[in-house]
Amino acid sequence: MERAIAELQQGFLSPAQIAASRAHMGLDTQLIRDGSYFLVEIDGLLAGCGGWSARATLFGGDASAGRDAAMLDPARDAARIRAMYTDPAFARRGVGRRIIALCEAAAAAAGFGRTEMAATLAGLPLYEACGYGVVERFEAVAPDGVPVPLVRMEKPLHRHSR
Ranges for the N-acetyltransferase domain (predicted)? Predict the structure, then answer.
């Protein structure tokens, strides 16, 4: 995760924003406890990770303030795509798309009709290519006062009936 934050955000965020983003990014271990976090390996190496959540928190790791573990209502709310990271050595090799597909399938199986996320600027092209639309742009302000730009995105899930 650290390498993904440090390397893949270059060109999208300033060095101060990259440093500040660590206050917002990282793993929320609730995803692991909920069994909704996926790892992708290539040749025995961890290539990427990411998950989905039926809880209210939109983004943020264990160290983030303001997380909300309340359960979402699949009939009303969007499932959350969370904590997506690709090792820079495996970027642009389909890892992120695979994780998104796993998350969307699991969220649909749990009854959700749509997903949403808070995307980094670096992740925006991938998520748009996967069918996500921009809902709003906003800033998460780190404890040191540095604003980190994020993009709230959403996608309807198409459930196929048999």
Answer: 1-158
Residue-range definition of the domain harbouring residue 133: 2-156
Domain annotation covers residue 162: no
Domain contains 87: yes
Q: Strand pairing of 114-119 and 79-86?
A: parallel
- Dig out the tokens for 1 from the structure: 């995760």
- Assign residue 67 the CATH number of its domain: 3.40.630.30
> pLDDT tens for residues 42-59?
999 999 999 999 999 999
Put residue 126 in one of left, alpha, beta given phi > 0 → left and psi -120 to 50 → alpha: alpha
Question: Average pLDDT of each block of 10 consecutive residues along the chain (162 residues)?
Answer: 90 94 84 97 97 95 83 98 96 97 98 98 97 97 92 88 42
pTM here is 0.92
Evaluate whether residue 70 is within a structural domain. Answer: yes
- Residue 162: the pLDDT is 42
| Residue 94 included in any domain | yes
Domain count, the chain: 1
